[in-house]
Amino acid sequence: MTNHTVKVYPSKTNLLKEEQLAWKLAAMTTDLTPIDAEVTEMVINRIIDNASVAIASVNRTPVVNAREQALAHSRTGNGANIFGTSNKTRVHAEWAAWANCVAVRELDYHDTFLAADYSHPADSIPAVLAVAQQMGKGGAEVLRGIVAAYEVHVNLVKGICLHEHKIDHVAHLAPAQAAGVCALLGLDTETTYQAIQQALHTSISTRQSRKGEISSWKAYVPAHGAKLAIEAVDRAMRGEKSPSPIYEGEDSVIAWILDGPEANYTVPLPDHGESKRAILETYTKEHSAEYQSQALIDLAFRMRERIADFEAIESILIETSHHTHYVIGTGSKDPQKFDPKSSRETLDHSIMYIFTVALQDGFWHHVKSYAPERTNRKDTVDLWHKVSTVEKEKWTKLYHDPDPDKKAFGGKVIITLKDGTIIEDELERANAHPAGARPFVRKNYIQKFDMLTEGIITSAERNRFLELVSRLPELSPQEIQQLNVEVPEGYLVKTQQKGIFG
């Protein structure tokens, strides 16, 4: 790996293209270094993971609406398919990516990478797969596209913080999605460079989507990025140019939206000929909640065995990282995080609620743990309001450790009982983390798939999809067009409200 310095230059400097970050990302994307076997295995795992959470959410309102929008853009001949629908149903690629990204993100239950910023790298997969289906690409090309998207996304997240400036993380996602599509299509470095710049330029939005009363737009964010990225690649393929240099220019994203003219970022990238292995540093979720709560849910399960009476609890203090405290903890100062009438999206970002329910129930479920009857239970509300968080340097340091085997997103919990007894415990990593007690491997991804799709798809469809995806590198274009999970006819609901598209 080589660390690349990224800073702002005045226009008169005329920064060489080859010295710009977007070009370096493009050069890395178009480098055809062979893909490691363990990287291939993890790509397959993440395709399974995406499918499982997407099928579990197919009848949730944002997913239904996104699907209806996509179905209004049908395509004859080669097109892309939509999670849950018949493999014979074809729509334009950017609309398939739109619908499928919403389905993948809706439950916030797929993979994550946390460093200088936040990310869900698997959000790139629907964009790559949709374009592959429309453009007649096979499994080897899909694999290359997904690996490139992960490499761009993870390394941008390592080097450039967006949330400090209240910019949503789609600004790293859209360039990654564009890079993935370019790698899939085998485009040259110049075209890829232009597409990455366009994708970034058009994808800047604020983090209000993750603040206060969090709305369903949170599920649409990666879909928005996917459409922008696919359209950017299309324009670049036609010879259109982009705002340049998009990172380093004096009126660029960095100069006016991020750290400003004095900015100095360091972005690591693999050297030419070096394997792209960033996907191996990412991790999926065992529990359907914000990733920074994963270890604390596991810790709640462990600590509850030491508590005979939850009514005896006086207070619960969670010592954790800066990010956890300020984003999903009491440091956010969001009263909605204590409101039982808050949306699922808001409760998913309240460690106070999450820890309380995990402690009381001893399990976590993507539906039951957020049900209104669960959130409004009096004993839960009472205990929920006794939980607070505080930042501790130890956990912030672990959060930002550059060594993926040391990086951790856990915390220490101190439970004080009314009689003065103190019960405390800590956990650095979620059990399912690659460096955790029970790292997720293929069988765990399949178990998660089976759990989330139980009662929705047939056993024959389950077996067909899992067998197909297991052969990803060798799949033909025709087989890639079948890389979708169909639900039985009549299962999908339709929206009752029409929009512009019908």
TrEMBL record:
Top-level taxon in the UniProt lineage: Bacteria
All copies of domain MmgE/PrpD N-terminal, residue ranges: 20-264
InterPro entries: MmgE/PrpD_sf, MmgE/PrpD_sf_1, MmgE/PrpD_sf_2, MmgE_PrpD, MmgE_PrpD_C, MmgE_PrpD_N
UniProt-recorded Gene Ontology molecular function terms: lyase activity
UniProt domain MmgE/PrpD C-terminal: residue ranges: 287-471
Pfam families: MmgE_PrpD_C (PF19305), MmgE_PrpD_N (PF03972)
Family, per entry: Belongs to the PrpD family.
PANTHER family, sorted: 2-METHYLCITRATE DEHYDRATASE, 2-METHYLCITRATE DEHYDRATASE-RELATED
UniProt-recorded name of the protein: 2-methylcitrate dehydratase
Organism: Jiulongibacter sediminis
